[in-house]
Amino acid sequence: MNILVVAAHPDDEILGVGGTIAKHVDNGDGVYALILGEGGTSRFENRKDAQEGLVEALHGNTRKAAAVLGIREVSFENFPDNRFDSVDLLDIVKAVERKIGILRPSIVYTHHGGDLNVDHTLTYRAVLTATRPMEDQPVQELYAFETVSSTEWNFAYGDAQFAPNVFVKLTKEQFERKLTAMQAYETELCAYPHPRSLDMLRAVACRWGGVAGARYVEAFEAVRILHP
Protein backbone atom coordinates (compact mmCIF):
# COMPACT_ATOMS: atom_id res chain seq x y z
CA MET A 1 0.00 0.00 0.00
CA ASN A 2 1.00 3.64 -0.38
CA ILE A 3 2.05 5.68 2.63
CA LEU A 4 2.24 9.49 2.61
CA VAL A 5 4.21 11.61 5.07
CA VAL A 6 3.18 15.27 5.05
CA ALA A 7 5.80 17.44 6.74
CA ALA A 8 6.14 21.18 7.10
CA HIS A 9 9.92 21.41 6.64
CA PRO A 10 12.88 19.45 5.35
CA ASP A 11 14.05 17.13 8.18
CA ASP A 12 10.63 16.91 9.92
CA GLU A 13 9.92 13.70 8.03
CA ILE A 14 13.02 12.12 9.57
CA LEU A 15 12.63 13.53 13.07
CA GLY A 16 9.01 12.45 13.38
CA VAL A 17 8.65 9.24 11.45
CA GLY A 18 12.05 8.21 10.03
CA GLY A 19 12.20 4.82 11.72
CA THR A 20 8.61 3.98 10.84
CA ILE A 21 9.31 4.91 7.22
CA ALA A 22 12.17 2.39 7.24
CA LYS A 23 9.80 -0.22 8.69
CA HIS A 24 7.16 0.44 6.02
CA VAL A 25 9.79 0.16 3.29
CA ASP A 26 11.04 -3.13 4.75
CA ASN A 27 7.45 -4.38 4.68
CA GLY A 28 7.17 -3.58 0.96
CA ASP A 29 5.02 -0.45 1.23
CA GLY A 30 5.51 2.52 -1.08
CA VAL A 31 6.44 5.55 1.01
CA TYR A 32 6.16 9.10 -0.35
CA ALA A 33 6.93 12.44 1.32
CA LEU A 34 5.37 15.84 0.74
CA ILE A 35 7.39 18.74 2.18
CA LEU A 36 5.18 21.82 2.30
CA GLY A 37 7.65 24.55 3.36
CA GLU A 38 10.90 25.71 1.86
CA GLY A 39 12.82 25.53 5.16
CA GLY A 40 15.69 27.66 6.42
CA THR A 41 14.66 31.12 5.25
CA SER A 42 13.01 32.11 8.54
CA ARG A 43 16.46 32.42 10.09
CA PHE A 44 16.85 35.70 8.21
CA GLU A 45 15.06 38.98 8.83
CA ASN A 46 13.79 38.88 5.26
CA ARG A 47 13.35 35.76 3.14
CA LYS A 48 15.22 37.48 0.33
CA ASP A 49 18.30 37.75 2.56
CA ALA A 50 18.74 33.96 2.62
CA GLN A 51 21.88 32.67 0.96
CA GLU A 52 21.50 31.80 -2.68
CA GLY A 53 20.99 28.08 -3.05
CA LEU A 54 19.92 27.52 0.58
CA VAL A 55 16.56 25.97 -0.28
CA GLU A 56 18.03 23.92 -3.12
CA ALA A 57 20.70 22.57 -0.74
CA LEU A 58 18.04 21.58 1.77
CA HIS A 59 16.13 19.80 -0.98
CA GLY A 60 19.30 17.94 -1.86
CA ASN A 61 19.65 16.87 1.77
CA THR A 62 16.04 15.68 1.73
CA ARG A 63 16.68 13.50 -1.30
CA LYS A 64 19.80 12.03 0.31
CA ALA A 65 17.85 11.21 3.46
CA ALA A 66 15.04 9.73 1.38
CA ALA A 67 17.49 7.46 -0.42
CA VAL A 68 18.79 6.15 2.91
CA LEU A 69 15.30 5.19 4.04
CA GLY A 70 13.97 4.03 0.68
CA ILE A 71 11.35 6.75 0.15
CA ARG A 72 10.14 6.46 -3.43
CA GLU A 73 9.53 10.15 -4.10
CA VAL A 74 9.78 13.50 -2.33
CA SER A 75 7.68 16.47 -3.47
CA PHE A 76 8.20 20.10 -2.45
CA GLU A 77 5.65 22.93 -2.29
CA ASN A 78 7.94 25.75 -1.03
CA PHE A 79 5.48 27.64 1.14
CA PRO A 80 7.35 30.36 3.12
CA ASP A 81 9.30 28.98 6.06
CA ASN A 82 7.64 29.63 9.44
CA ARG A 83 5.21 31.92 7.64
CA PHE A 84 2.41 29.49 6.78
CA ASP A 85 0.09 31.88 8.60
CA SER A 86 0.71 34.35 5.76
CA VAL A 87 -0.73 31.84 3.27
CA ASP A 88 -4.40 31.05 2.79
CA LEU A 89 -5.05 27.76 4.56
CA LEU A 90 -7.01 26.62 1.52
CA ASP A 91 -3.84 26.79 -0.59
CA ILE A 92 -2.13 24.38 1.80
CA VAL A 93 -5.17 22.11 1.86
CA LYS A 94 -5.25 22.02 -1.95
CA ALA A 95 -1.57 21.05 -2.11
CA VAL A 96 -2.21 18.10 0.21
CA GLU A 97 -5.38 17.13 -1.65
CA ARG A 98 -3.53 17.06 -4.98
CA LYS A 99 -0.93 14.65 -3.63
CA ILE A 100 -3.56 12.43 -2.01
CA GLY A 101 -5.48 12.38 -5.29
CA ILE A 102 -2.40 11.17 -7.15
CA LEU A 103 -1.12 8.61 -4.65
CA ARG A 104 -4.37 7.41 -3.04
CA PRO A 105 -2.47 6.57 0.19
CA SER A 106 -3.99 4.26 2.77
CA ILE A 107 -2.01 5.82 5.63
CA VAL A 108 -0.95 9.42 6.24
CA TYR A 109 1.48 10.68 8.89
CA THR A 110 1.71 14.36 9.77
CA HIS A 111 2.52 16.79 12.58
CA HIS A 112 0.91 16.96 15.99
CA GLY A 113 -1.64 19.76 16.06
CA GLY A 114 -0.38 21.24 19.33
CA ASP A 115 3.19 21.96 18.26
CA LEU A 116 4.87 25.28 19.02
CA ASN A 117 5.80 25.82 15.38
CA VAL A 118 3.02 27.58 13.47
CA ASP A 119 3.83 25.70 10.26
CA HIS A 120 3.36 22.37 12.04
CA THR A 121 0.00 23.46 13.44
CA LEU A 122 -1.29 24.62 10.07
CA THR A 123 0.05 21.51 8.35
CA TYR A 124 -1.99 19.41 10.76
CA ARG A 125 -5.11 21.47 10.08
CA ALA A 126 -4.57 21.23 6.32
CA VAL A 127 -4.07 17.46 6.45
CA LEU A 128 -7.10 17.00 8.67
CA THR A 129 -9.18 18.94 6.15
CA ALA A 130 -7.72 17.16 3.12
CA THR A 131 -8.41 13.73 4.66
CA ARG A 132 -11.94 14.43 5.88
CA PRO A 133 -13.77 11.09 5.93
CA MET A 134 -16.02 11.14 2.90
CA GLU A 135 -17.02 7.96 1.07
CA ASP A 136 -14.32 8.26 -1.61
CA GLN A 137 -11.54 9.16 0.85
CA PRO A 138 -8.62 6.74 0.33
CA VAL A 139 -6.92 7.55 3.66
CA GLN A 140 -8.01 4.95 6.17
CA GLU A 141 -5.49 5.78 8.89
CA LEU A 142 -4.22 9.19 9.99
CA TYR A 143 -1.46 9.54 12.58
CA ALA A 144 0.22 12.56 14.20
CA PHE A 145 3.90 12.47 15.10
CA GLU A 146 6.01 14.53 17.47
CA THR A 147 8.78 16.73 16.13
CA VAL A 148 11.62 17.27 18.57
CA SER A 149 12.40 20.98 19.15
CA SER A 150 8.75 21.87 18.52
CA THR A 151 6.35 19.44 20.19
CA GLU A 152 8.04 19.41 23.59
CA TRP A 153 8.86 23.13 23.51
CA ASN A 154 5.17 24.01 23.52
CA PHE A 155 5.07 22.98 27.20
CA ALA A 156 1.47 22.04 26.53
CA TYR A 157 -1.25 20.76 28.82
CA GLY A 158 -4.63 19.21 28.14
CA ASP A 159 -5.68 18.72 24.55
CA ALA A 160 -2.57 20.47 23.19
CA GLN A 161 -0.22 17.93 24.78
CA PHE A 162 1.23 15.12 22.67
CA ALA A 163 -0.37 11.99 24.11
CA PRO A 164 0.64 9.00 21.97
CA ASN A 165 -1.51 5.90 21.86
CA VAL A 166 0.24 4.04 19.02
CA PHE A 167 3.79 2.74 19.38
CA VAL A 168 5.85 1.36 16.50
CA LYS A 169 8.58 -1.10 17.43
CA LEU A 170 11.74 -0.63 15.40
CA THR A 171 14.65 -2.94 14.86
CA LYS A 172 18.09 -1.58 15.72
CA GLU A 173 18.88 -1.45 12.00
CA GLN A 174 15.72 0.54 11.21
CA PHE A 175 16.46 3.01 13.97
CA GLU A 176 20.08 3.39 12.84
CA ARG A 177 18.84 4.17 9.33
CA LYS A 178 16.82 7.01 10.82
CA LEU A 179 19.98 8.43 12.40
CA THR A 180 21.93 8.01 9.16
CA ALA A 181 19.17 9.78 7.24
CA MET A 182 19.18 12.65 9.75
CA GLN A 183 22.91 13.08 9.21
CA ALA A 184 22.14 14.09 5.62
CA TYR A 185 20.76 17.36 7.04
CA GLU A 186 24.07 19.08 7.64
CA THR A 187 22.56 22.45 8.58
CA GLU A 188 19.74 21.07 10.75
CA LEU A 189 21.56 18.48 12.87
CA CYS A 190 22.79 19.99 16.13
CA ALA A 191 25.00 19.00 19.05
CA TYR A 192 23.59 17.68 22.33
CA PRO A 193 21.69 18.89 24.32
CA HIS A 194 19.78 20.39 21.41
CA PRO A 195 16.75 18.19 20.63
CA ARG A 196 17.83 17.84 16.98
CA SER A 197 20.89 15.85 17.96
CA LEU A 198 21.57 12.16 17.48
CA ASP A 199 21.89 11.69 21.24
CA MET A 200 18.44 13.16 21.83
CA LEU A 201 16.88 11.11 19.04
CA ARG A 202 18.26 8.00 20.75
CA ALA A 203 16.91 9.21 24.08
CA VAL A 204 13.43 9.81 22.64
CA ALA A 205 13.36 6.37 21.02
CA CYS A 206 14.45 4.74 24.26
CA ARG A 207 11.98 6.81 26.28
CA TRP A 208 9.04 5.58 24.21
CA GLY A 209 10.58 2.14 24.19
CA GLY A 210 10.43 2.16 27.97
CA VAL A 211 6.77 3.20 27.82
CA ALA A 212 5.84 0.53 25.28
CA GLY A 213 8.15 -2.30 26.36
CA ALA A 214 10.62 -2.36 23.46
CA ARG A 215 14.12 -1.05 22.86
CA TYR A 216 13.53 1.41 20.00
CA VAL A 217 10.09 2.96 19.45
CA GLU A 218 8.44 5.83 17.60
CA ALA A 219 5.20 7.14 19.11
CA PHE A 220 2.09 8.52 17.41
CA GLU A 221 -1.36 9.80 18.13
CA ALA A 222 -4.02 7.95 16.17
CA VAL A 223 -6.22 10.73 14.79
CA ARG A 224 -8.58 8.55 12.77
CA ILE A 225 -8.65 4.86 11.81
CA LEU A 226 -11.22 3.21 9.55
CA HIS A 227 -11.15 -0.57 9.81
CA PRO A 228 -12.14 -2.31 6.55
Count of individual beta strands: 7
Helix content: 25-40%
How big is the Rg?
Answer: 16 Å
Report mean pLDDT, rounded to a whole number: 94
In short:
This protein has helices at 12-26, 54-69, 89-103, 118-130, 172-182, 198-212, and strands spanning 2-7, 30-37, 73-79, 107-111, 141-145, 166-170, 216-225. It is an alpha/beta fold and 228 residues long.
Question: Secondary-structure map with pairings?
Answer:
Elements: E1 2-7, H1 12-26, E2 30-37, H2 54-69, E3 73-79, H3 89-103, E4 107-111, H4 118-130, E5 141-145, E6 166-170, H5 172-182, H6 198-212, E7 216-225
Parallel strand pairs: 1-2, 1-4, 2-3, 4-5
Antiparallel strand pairs: 5-7, 6-7
Description:
The protein is an alpha/beta fold and 228 residues long. 37% of the residues lie in helices and 20% in strands. It has a 7-stranded mixed β-sheet, sandwiched between helices. Strand 1, helix 1 (12-26) and strand 2 form a beta-alpha-beta unit. Helix 2 runs antiparallel to helix 5. The longest helix is centred in the N-terminal third of the chain and has 16 residues, at 54-69. The relative contact order is 0.18. The mean pLDDT is 94.
